[in-house]
Amino acid sequence: EKQVVTSIAYSTNEAKVTLIGLTDCPGVAAAIFESLAKAAINVDMIVQNVSQNGDFTDLTFTVNSSNLNLACKMLNVLKKDLGYVDIISNAMVCKISVVGVGMRSQPGVAKIMFHTLAKCGINIQLITTSEIRISVLISSKYLDLALQALHTAYGLDTDG
Amino acid sequence: EKQVVTSIAYSTNEAKVTLIGLTDCPGVAAAIFESLAKAAINVDMIVQNVSQNGDFTDLTFTVNSSNLNLACKMLNVLKKDLGYVDIISNAMVCKISVVGVGMRSQPGVAKIMFHTLAKCGINIQLITTSEIRISVLISSKYLDLALQALHTAYGLDTDG
Ligand SMILES: C[C@@H](O)[C@H](N)C(=O)O
Ligand SMILES: C[C@@H](O)[C@H](N)C(=O)O
């Protein structure tokens, strides 16, 4: 597993916005991102999980912290249309990604990342993956601790 | 937005597994992926959203359909340790990804994808993104309809 991971990336200027209790039917996600696109707000991560019994689900996205207030304002306007229960946002987060081609065939890569963060007592707030990357959101106060621990765990420590 | 997207990828042999009501504290994700790694089960997508008030959250991952039963069996063993409420799984899903370098700076790319699926009456079950890709899980019965509509929406139709 260790050789597969070639680098650890991170970003600190992100803020997360979570819409709680969205109706899980076609068109809801489209309405959210139409309103953000209208305000020309760039979105980085988008995460939505499956709803338990097909009725409600939460959707989280991240924006540059400088756009956090505008994003929440745009979504407040949609509250009646979308019928979500609440919006929670938090700028004290950072994104950390473990990067490596071929990681899809290595179930141990995810295990090492989550295990390393757990050993540091760091709670994982959000997880999303792509073919060559696993990204998590954690509290920004743990950035340095997490980066050091992950570099060591994947054998990426620079010598000397 | 249209030029940014260069291709639409898909995969049909995936099955989703969702763990409902996991305790949201360090070590939980590690235990799940440790057990899957022990059984050498390759995982493709991993999606976990933020929990509302820091107590419980759901985690979804996808595996090759041939590993679905084994994955559920491994997780059933952990039920007492992890304390999750339920496991739901479904093999009738497919993953569709919109791919394009530089899409992070284009909020309209996500809007077009979600809007196009909504117009077809297709419900989005799960969303996850990376720097160059937006991926969704939808019911496998809509694969062809979704692929056609997305190719048209992003101007990727091959000339007659
Ligand atoms: C929640 C949202 O993704 C909804 N399922 C949709 O398709 O728009
Ligand atoms: C739910 C799970 O991700 C938990 N927050 C952890 O850190 O392991």
Question: What does it look like?
Answer:
- The first copy, chain A, has 160 residues and is α+β, with helices and mostly antiparallel strands.
- Helix content of chain A is 31%, strand content 34%.
- Chain A is built from 4 helices and 8 strands; from the N terminus they run ββαββαββαββα.
- Chain A has helices at 28-38, 68-82, 107-119, 143-153; strands at 7-11, 14-23, 43-48, 56-64, 86-90, 93-99, 126-130, 133-139.
- In chain A, the strands form 2 sheets. Chain A has a 4-stranded antiparallel sheet, covered by helices on one side.
- In chain A, strand 7 and strand 8 form a beta hairpin.
- In chain A, helix 1 packs antiparallel against helix 2 and helix 3 (107-119) packs across helix 4.
- The two termini of chain A are 23 Å apart.
- The mean pLDDT of chain A is 92.
- Strand 3 (43-48) of chain A pairs antiparallel with strand 7 (126-130) of chain B.
- One threonine sits between chains A (22, 24-30, 48, 57, 59) and B (114, 118, 123-124).
- One threonine sits between chains B (22, 24-30, 48, 57, 59) and A (114, 118, 123-124).
Q: Helices and strands in order, then pairings?
A:
The structure is a homodimer of 160-residue chains.
Chain A: E1 7-11, E2 14-23, H1 28-38, E3 43-48, E4 56-64, H2 68-82, E5 86-90, E6 93-99, H3 107-119, E7 126-130, E8 133-139, H4 143-153
Helix pairs in contact in A: 1-2, 3-4
One threonine (THR) sits between chains A (22, 24-30, 48, 57, 59) and B (114, 118, 123-124).
Q: How is this structure best summarized?
A:
Chain A has 160 residues and is α+β, with helices and mostly antiparallel strands.
